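Narrative of activities, Objective 1.

The group set out to show that a structural description can be obtained from nothing but a protein's sequence at a throughput compatible with the screening campaign. Below is one input-output pair from the validation batch, recorded exactly as produced.
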Amino acid sequence: MVPPFGNPPLACYDLAVNGSDATGWRRWGPALFSALLALALYAVTLGGTYVYDDAIVVALDDRVKNPKLWRQFWTGQWIHGALDNLYRPLVSQSFGLQWWLHGDRIWAFHLVNVLLHAGASALVAELGRRLANWRVGLFAGLLFACHPIHSEAVAGLVGRAELACAVGLFGAMVLFLKQPMTTPRAWAIFALGLLAMLSKEQGLLLPALLAALVPVRRNQKLPPAAADSTPDQRHAQRQAMLLTFALVIWSASALIVLREEILKLKFEWERGFLDLAMQPLVKSPPADRWLIPLALLGKYFQLLIVPTRLSVDYGLAVIGSTINRGNPYLYLGAAVLIAAIFGAAICLHRRKWVALFCLLAMALTYAPASNVVILATIFGERLMYLPSAFLLILLAIALTRLPRPAANVLLLLLLVLGCLRTWTYVQKWNDRDAFYEYSLNLQPKSLKIHLLLADADYQKGRLSDARRIMTEAETIYPGYWELWKMSALIDERAGDWNDAVADWRRAFDLHPAVPIAEQLANAMTMLQKQRATTRGKN
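Output recorded for this entry:
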């Protein structure tokens, strides 16, 4: 049996030549079955469309459609004109290549996302197998493939950043656990690291993740070729290991310098320029500024364990700038944090390196989403794509400690529940307007969902419906500038010039960013001229 928070018997490792894991379907089965489940489950998304930020990143980005502009993927930010300074050129380039190959065939964009998720699921299974044994790998891979919290990352095209980064990181860790280390393997890890780093900011964590794997690797049983190696061979292995760390540290450092000093895409930005609807922490008082991230940890943990209510938005008026001291997520988050710290201390004391690595990897990959350092989005389910893998490996280790019949029944139950919840949710993404209506019913205070639904009505000329939605949103939180901008656009199209000018002025007064405020002022000036021209004709 495998201890729930420790290293499995050495015979369970991939490189234990006398272990049953070394040959047969137990070697390749976990990865294959996990990938097949991911493909089957998310095939429904091939009928999908552009949802949320998908249109901005793909269909409405001129760089995607024009190969002459592809250079700007590598010299500019993820979303052109955004304030969050994200740099994900490889993902943007993949959209450009696809558009060049097949044009606006949305199903093909979704297909790549599904394939990436299948690859990530297979790599989670292989990582679990190398860390423990084939059953841990199978359990972790299958659970990762069907976990409902991954729906947004796979069904939304912008989630490709999470998927590609995960493939790079998981692949690098799998290769790192392969004994003995060789120079070609070091370069392969470097290449996978570049895939991760150029896809999403969490890829920069690779050097730390590999360092956390070193104690696990040292406790693996070596194959005969490595165990009986000559001094020259051992020297070559040490050199290959040094090369591995030199390459990943150098690439991470070079990318940071490129972003910070050359492209001027700073990791931190002025809080006053952040979108209040996406990041309410910018207006939090000092105590709430630190209590809310604790509650966010509790909410994330709840969604990982009981992913029943899923949503595309958790911004302002869903998660506010202040928090009630009786909020249950606050105490759940505190309990999770304390349990993780104590668990890591116990694992370190008892030299339980596998469990310690999983806890450290969860902490490292969750940290960028924790809002300890404020980021552009306060909360997002897709942000849990990477951290969830390590929690599921720990869960798989715990499951395999149970008697086999009980473990298999429990796994089957979790898989059935996970697949049902995921399938029923992701198919809603195929109909954009219906999905927005469903999301608004689920999160009736979400300002972003109000805006998305109103914009959909506006684009289709349903102005009365759009105006009703915006009136409702302005009642919820009248201090958000973009609500008034949307109302102004609706009033313009309806010919309500006085209301349009008043709404533009309100948006101008509320927006904190000077460049955007200037644009709003110009729009208001043009509208006033247009109103005067209309009056002259009448």
